[in-house]
Every structure is written in structure tokens, then in C-alpha cells.
């Protein structure tokens, strides 16, 4: 299976009308960097999925936690949720978490030995962010593997029934967890109560943080390691100067974004983007992976260049819906890459690059597995 498209805007067209399925339905796909930034900020594009589908028949049966959350709402509802979520991931809060993240990385690598062959996705990229976000949410250790599996199913691109079932497993589990938790012992529950969120809103925020808090970070880690293994000069450079890893993350995020297509938006008014008229009432899809390869924004975009100023990348989104967990994702990636590069300086791919498999998902871009030989 080949990787999902992460290249520059198709044929130089930053805005395209694309089919979305049978029945002649279509949406507008934004692949240009400037156009994506513009659309991310445009209040005429709504994220209220309930509003969009209110008069459109659907056979989907997602748990309400996934249809009415922070990513599927507009201000003022979005503002209330964001006000609760943001303090959980401030730079200061993440700084406090760094010793715990380091401990988790050390524990995951404790049995690794030079010469061993491992799947870096299964043994590092998945368990690290799952462990950290579950710790923040107060999920007991015995339940974390099941939650990770349900979250994996939630991103399946081939089976909507499987997606819907996974959403209910996660929503029902988190409802029970929060109903039986003490606010004094659960920072999220305490923050939600102080922020005035009711129980259904608290469950929806917990579900969003659980899924978004590890799925994209898993792909960030896998994609970044693959990029470095494919560019040994960049890998050697960071190995010799690991303090440069935080600065290199922007280019690694730009080069191979963990998000192919941002979550759902629709136009509430007629608008014009990139010279294309978008009528009211149509889905608008933003493709950060393609926008991050737009040569108008990043010259020679197919080249990994650690000296490039890539801070304008859109891997975490832009505007009011920019990922609040970005500081945590960056910290996890930095700590994991530092440990990997310094402990195993000659790590190498076990398989040829064209033999690697990529997950089939609707929104994200990441490896199903990354077999490597430690050295």
C-alpha cells in the first residue's frame, strides 16, 4: 500500500472541487498554504457538524461525545471548551510532565538491545502518547490497551460500522470513568467543573483529548523517525547536537505531516478562496499535508532541510482550532527522538522503504509499522 498523498497542490491548483462519494456529491479541497491559512481563520466556515447534517439523512451512529465536541463546534460553545482544555497543555504544565514522559520512554526502551529488530510504531510511537494521555485523564493502566485499540478503530477508513462501534466503546467507558472519579484526583474533571461544563460536555472533551492526544503524536513519531532514517545526514546532525531536536521538529512536521485532512468544515455563506467560488452549504476540506508541501510557501518542499524556517507549517492547524495539545506532542517527540538517536546511533530500517505499509485512515497520515534494527 502506498502512502496517502502528501505532495504539493495538485497541478498548481490550491482549491479544487472534488467528489465525496456516490450521488454526485462534492466538496472543496484546499491544498495551497496561503489558502489553507485563510480558510482556517474564516468564521464563515463552520465546524458544527450537527448543524450541517440536521436536514441530511445519515445512517451513521456515532456516540454523542464525537458529534458534539470542541472540534465539532463554533464559538461560543467552542470557546467554553477551549478555555478548559488549553490550561492542561500550557508550556509550564508540559514542563512539569517532562520527567514523567522521560520515565515512560526509559521504561519502553529498557529491554531494547543493539542488534534487536523491533517495530518502532508498536513499541514506542503507540504506547508513549497513549500512556501519557491516559495518565492525564486518570485511566487505570489495565484499561489503556483497550482504549488504544478502540481509538485505532475510530480512524479506520474502510468500515463505518466499526468506527461507530468504537466511538460508543470509548464514550461509554469515559462516561463511567468520569462518573466514578473524584474531582480532587482527576485534573480534567476538576477543570471541567470549574469551567462550567456539564457531564456530557466533559465526556466529549475527554474523548477528544484521548483520541487527538495520542493518534497524531503516534504518526508524528513514526513519520519523523522514518524521515531521519531516509536522511542520514540530518540524523547524524541531530545525534551530534541533540539540543537541536526541538528546532528540527517544525521541519519534520512540515515534511511529513501526521494530519492529511483537517476535521470537517462547511461553508455558511458564499465565499471565494484562491480564485474559486465556494457556495454556501458545502463541505470544505483543508489538507495540511499538501499545504506543507506548497512550493509557494516552502521552496523545494520535497527536501528535508533542518535549516529551513518551517514555523509556519500547518501540521497543528491554525487559528482558534489549532491543536491545544501541540506543546505536549512536541515534548513527547523531542524526548523520544533524543533517547533513540543517542542510545542507538546506527539504527536502520529493516525493510526497504517501498515495503513499508501505511494506515488507511480518513484524516491522518502514518505508518502501520516501522521495522528497524537497533545498533
Set down the secondary structure blueprint.
Blueprint: E1 15-19, E2 26-30, H1 33-41, E3 45-46, H2 49-53, H3 77-85, H4 91-109, E4 117-119, H5 120-125, H6 127-137, H7 144-154, H8 160-179, H9 187-194, H10 199-212, H11 215-230, H12 232-240, H13 245-255, E5 266-267, E6 271-273, E7 276-278, E8 284-286, H14 288-291, H15 326-343, E9 348-349, E10 371-373
Parallel strand pairs: 2-8
Antiparallel strand pairs: 1-2, 3-5, 4-10, 6-7, 9-10
Helix pairs in contact: 4-6, 4-15, 7-8, 8-10, 11-13, 11-15
Please provide a written account of the structure.
- This protein is mainly alpha-helical.
- The protein contains 15 helices and 10 strands.
- The protein has one domain: Cytochrome p450 (Orthogonal Bundle).
- 45% of the residues lie in helices and 8% in strands.
- It has a 3-stranded mixed β-sheet.
- A hairpin with a 2-residue loop joins β6 and β7 (276-278).
CATH architecture: Orthogonal Bundle
Series of H and E elements: EEHEHHHEHHHHHHHHHEEEEHHEE
Q: What's the number of helices?
A: 15
Which topology does CATH recognise? Cytochrome p450
Task: Give the helix level as a range of percent.
Answer: 40-55%
For the sheet with most strands, the description reads: 3 strands, mixed
Give the C-level CATH assignment. Mainly Alpha
Assembly status: single chain
Whole-number tally of structural domains: 1
Instruction: Extract low-pLDDT stretches.
Output: none
Q: Strand order of the main beta sheet, please?
A: 1-2-8
Name the structural class. Answer: mainly alpha
Mean pLDDT: 92
Q: How many distinct beta strands?
A: 10
Amino acid at each position: 500500500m502506498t502512502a496517502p498523498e502528501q505532495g504539493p497542490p495538485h497541478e498548481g491548483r490550491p482549491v479544487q472541487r472534488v467528489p465525496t462519494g456516490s450521488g454526485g456529491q462534492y466538496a472543496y479541497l484546499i491544498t495551497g498554504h496561503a489558502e489553507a491559512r485563510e480558510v482556517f481563520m474564516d468564521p464563515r466556515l463552520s465546524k458544527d457538524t450537527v448543524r450541517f447534517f440536521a436536514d441530511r439523512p445519515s445512517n451513521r451512529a456515532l456516540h454523542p461525545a464525537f458529534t458534539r465536541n470542541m472540534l465539532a463546534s463554533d464559538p461560543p460553545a467552542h470557546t467554553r471548551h477551549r478555555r478548559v482544555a488549553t490550561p492542561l497543555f500550557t508550556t509550564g504544565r508540559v514542563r512539569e510532565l517532562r520527567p514523567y514522559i522521560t520515565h515512560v520512554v526509559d521504561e519502553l526502551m529498557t529491554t531494547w538491545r543493539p542488534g534487536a529488530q523491533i517495530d518502532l510504531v508498536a513499541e514506542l510511537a503507540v504506547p508513549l502518547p497513549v500512556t501519557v494521555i491516559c495518565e492525564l485523564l486518570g485511566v487505570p493502566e489495565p484499561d489503556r490497551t483497550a482504549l488504544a485499540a478502540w481509538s485505532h478503530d475510530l480512524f479506520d477508513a474502510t468500515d463505518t460500522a466499526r468506527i461507530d462501534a468504537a466511538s460508543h466503546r470509548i464514550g461509554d467507558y469515559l462516561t463511567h470513568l468520569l462518573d466514578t472519579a473524584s474531582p480532587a484526583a482527576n485534573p480534567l474533571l476538576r477543570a471541567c467543573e470549574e469551567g462550567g461544563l456539564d457531564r456530557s460536555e466533559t465526556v466529549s472533551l475527554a474523548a477528544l483529548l484521548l483520541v487527538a492526544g495520542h493518534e497524531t503524536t503516534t504518526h508524528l513519531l513514526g513519520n519523523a523517525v522514518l524521515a531521519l532514517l531516509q536522511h542520514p545526514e540530518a540524523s547524524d546532525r541531530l545525534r551530534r547536537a541533540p539540543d537541536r531536536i526541538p528546532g528540527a521538529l517544525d521541519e519534520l512536521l512540515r515534511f511529513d505531516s501526521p494530519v492529511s485532512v483537517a476535521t470537517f468544515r462547511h461553508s455558511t455563506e458564499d465565499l471565494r478562496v484562491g480564485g474559486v467560488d465556494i457556495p454556501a452549504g458545502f463541505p470544505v476540506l483543508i489538507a495540511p499535508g499538501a499545504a506543507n508541501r506548497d512550493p509557494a510557501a516552502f521552496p523545494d518542499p520535497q527536501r528535508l532541510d533542518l535549516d529551513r524556517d518551517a514555523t509556519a507549517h500547518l501540521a497543528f492547524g491554525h487559528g482558534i482550532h489549532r491543536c491545544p495539545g501541540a506543546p505536549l506532542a512536541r515534548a513527547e517527540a523531542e524526548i523520544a527522538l533524543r533517547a533513540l538517536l543517542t542510545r542507538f546511533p546506527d539504527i536502520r530500517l529493516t525493510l526497504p522503504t517501498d515495503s513499508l505499509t501505511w494506515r488507511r485512515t480518513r484524516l491522518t497520515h502514518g505508518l502501520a509499522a516501522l521495522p528497524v534494527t537497533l545498533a
